[in-house]
């Protein structure tokens, strides 16, 4: 791809949500981690958009790979933009996909556009807006894929964590569509359990993907929900996730019921932002 940064010194800028910084990967010529106020948000390799460094993004990408036959374009809504890791991946692996990316931080969008430009593609549109407002303005059944990966200050906002929000996702999702959610939580995983319960109230066919230490509540980390109107491809998803160079597990069926036992559906009145990471988390 022509244009875009060369690996060199770090570059930073003030954006609406704080300070954005691009940290070069010393092992890859034009690869960078986008950091917001000290928290890594996205990783992009400008020369190889299918190279995904964050394990939770790789798990999402596996679910995207299995969402439809190879190369078939998808209609995708990405709630949360960052550096557009997954939209770039989808544009590369499924050319012709119509993608809408929603990011609330307009200054961040301009920073990424300038420093890490994405390929010129009339089907890839980036809009500055609130994620829920953009979702609520979408047509019924408009998307084959909806991705929710929204963080403000390392926490998912409360208005994106309710059953009312999940029902809007269910409304805009095609009958065979896939909903992907990035959750971040730590022991005792109360937030994650509540979110899985809440999502299943709107989209009952769901599974949870994470590594064993996070699932057992031993450390803070990312958990990916895969949900839809139809059952996710559990066997294929399990094989692919287990074969990753940072293996994960897929929790579904009775095991998922046990995981969420006692958790209540969260509505707009009771919704809270996600659990913040421990102070030492980004120093690892």
UniProtKB/TrEMBL annotation:
<protein>
    <submittedName>
        <fullName>Fused MFS/spermidine synthase</fullName>
    </submittedName>
</protein>
<dbReference type="InterPro" id="IPR029063">
    <property type="entry name" value="SAM-dependent_MTases_sf"/>
</dbReference>
<keyword id="KW-0808">Transferase</keyword>
<feature type="active site" description="Proton acceptor">
    <location>
        <position position="149"/>
    </location>
</feature>
<feature type="region of interest" description="Disordered">
    <location>
        <begin position="1"/>
        <end position="20"/>
    </location>
</feature>
<comment type="similarity">
    <text>Belongs to the spermidine/spermine synthase family.</text>
</comment>
<feature type="domain" description="PABS">
    <location>
        <begin position="1"/>
        <end position="240"/>
    </location>
</feature>
<keyword id="KW-0620">Polyamine biosynthesis</keyword>
<feature type="compositionally biased region" description="Basic and acidic residues">
    <location>
        <begin position="1"/>
        <end position="13"/>
    </location>
</feature>
<dbReference type="InterPro" id="IPR030374">
    <property type="entry name" value="PABS"/>
</dbReference>
């Amino acid at each position: 791809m022509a244009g875009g940064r060369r690996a060199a010194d770090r570059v930073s800028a003030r954006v609406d949500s704080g300070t954005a910084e691009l940290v070069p990967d010393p092992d890859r010529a034009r690869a960078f981690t986008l950091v917001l106020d000290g928290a890594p948000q996205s990783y992009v390799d400008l020369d190889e958009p299918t190279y995904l460094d964050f394990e939770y993004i790789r798990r999402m990408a596996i679910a995207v790979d299995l969402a439809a036959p190879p190369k078939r374009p998808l209609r995708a809504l990405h709630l949360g933009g960052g550096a557009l890791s997954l939209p770039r991946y989808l544009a590369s692996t499924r050319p012709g996909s119509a993608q809408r990316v929603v990011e609330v931080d307009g200054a961040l969008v301009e920073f990424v556009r300038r420093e890490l430009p994405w390929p010129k593609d009339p089907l890839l549109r980036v809009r500055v807006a609130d994620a829920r407002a953009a979702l609520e303005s979408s047509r019924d059944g408009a998307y084959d894929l909806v991705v929710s990966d929204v963080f403000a200050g390392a926490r998912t906002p409360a208005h994106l964590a309710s059953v009312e929000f999940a029902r809007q996702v269910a409304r805009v999702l095609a009958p065979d569509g896939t909903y992907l959610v990035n959750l971040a939580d730590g022991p005792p995983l109360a937030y994650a359990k509540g979110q899985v319960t809440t999502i299943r109230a709107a989209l009952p066919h769901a599974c949870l993907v994470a590594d064993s230490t996070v699932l057992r509540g031993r450390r803070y980390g990312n958990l990916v929900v895969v949900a839809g109107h139809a059952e996710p491809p559990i066997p294929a998803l399990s094989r692919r996730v287990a074969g990753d160079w940072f293996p994960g597990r897929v929790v579904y069926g009775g095991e998922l019921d046990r995981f969420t036992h006692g958790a209540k559906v969260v509505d707009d009145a009771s919704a809270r932002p996600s659990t913040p990471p421990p102070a030492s988390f980004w120093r690892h």
